[in-house]
Amino acid sequence: MTTDSLPERAGRRCHNAVNPLHSALYFSPEFTRDFAEAGLDGFAPAYFAARSAPMGAVGPGTVTATFYVFKHELIARHVPGVWEKASPRDVLGIRLRAVDRMLRRLLGDAAVESPEMAEAAALAQRAAEACGRHSRPLCASQADLPVPGEPHLAFWHAATLLREHRGDGHVSVLADAELDPLEALVSHSASGKGMTPKWMLQTRGWTEDEWHAAQDRLRARGLLDADGELTEAGTELRKRLETETDRLDRAPYEHLGAAGVQRLTELAGGWAMTAFEAGAFPSDLFGKG
C-alpha cells in the first residue's frame, strides 16, 4: 500500500482522534489516586514511572533522552527513586487498572463493552502491527508488553503504541531542526496547538526565566517576533515539523488502509469528544494561554 492510497493527513487525523484516549489517563483522578496509593504522589513521579515502566527500571538519563521536553533536573529528582516505591511490573498493573476505571467513567460501561470498542481495538492493533521498533525506544518497549484481553484495554494498549511511535519520530524531527527541548515547547505553544505556557512550566520543570531565554533564542533565529508570536518562518517551521513527523509515522496507517483509518478515526473521534465533554482534560490545558 502506498501513501497515495490515503487522503492527505489522514494518519494525523487518526492520531488526533486516538491519542486523547491515551493521554487522558495522565489527567484523570484514577491515575492520581492509584499512583499516590503506591507511594508515587504527584504528577511528575507518577508520569515518569507510568510512561517509562515498559523500558524497565531505567535511570534519569534514559527518561530525559526519550521524553525530550522535560527538564533533566526534574526527572532526576524522581528517577530512579520511583522504582524503590513500585517496580516497573507493579506500575504497569496500576496503569491498566486506572485505564479501566477511567474509560468506564468517561465513556460509560455500554461504550466500553460495545461491539464498536472491540472493532476499534482490532483496527488499532492492526495499525500498530506496522509500528517500527528501530530508533523508537518508547514504542519498542511498549510493543514488548502483552496485549490485554479486554477490548477497551487492548484499544488503549494499541493507542499507546501509536502515540509513542509518532512521538519517537517527532523527537528525531525536533533534534534535526536543532530545536532544544524548551525551544520545541515554546514554539509549539506559540502555534496555539500545544499546551499553554502555564501547564508546560508546571509539568515540564522549566522556569519562567528559562522560558524567556528560549523565546530570545527563537527570536535570534527569526522564528518568534517581539510579542512572542510565530513569524512566517516560525509558522513554516512548525508546519514542516508536523509534515515530516507525518512522513515518519505513515507506516501504521498505510498498513491499516484508507477504509480502516477512516473507521478508526470515526470511532475514536466520537469517544474523544465524549471524553472532552466529560472533563477529561483541564479547561485551560490547550492554547496560547
Structure description:
The protein has 289 residues and is mostly helical. α9 packs across α16. It is globular and about 55 Å long. 69% of the residues lie in helices and 0% in strands.
Number of strands: 0
User: How would a crystallographer describe the biggest sheet?
Assistant: none
Shape call: globular
Structural class: mainly alpha
Write the topology of this structure:
Blueprint: H1 10-23, H2 29-37, H3 43-52, H4 60-67, H5 72-78, H6 82-85, H7 88-107, H8 109-112, H9 115-128, H10 137-143, H11 151-176, H12 181-190, H13 197-204, H14 208-220, H15 232-248, H16 250-256, H17 258-277
Helix pairs in contact: 1-11, 1-17, 2-7, 4-5, 9-11, 9-16, 9-17, 10-11, 11-15, 12-14
Summarize the structure.
The protein is mainly alpha-helical and 289 residues long. It is built from 17 helices and no strands.
What labels describe this entry?
289 residues; mainly alpha; 17 helices; globular
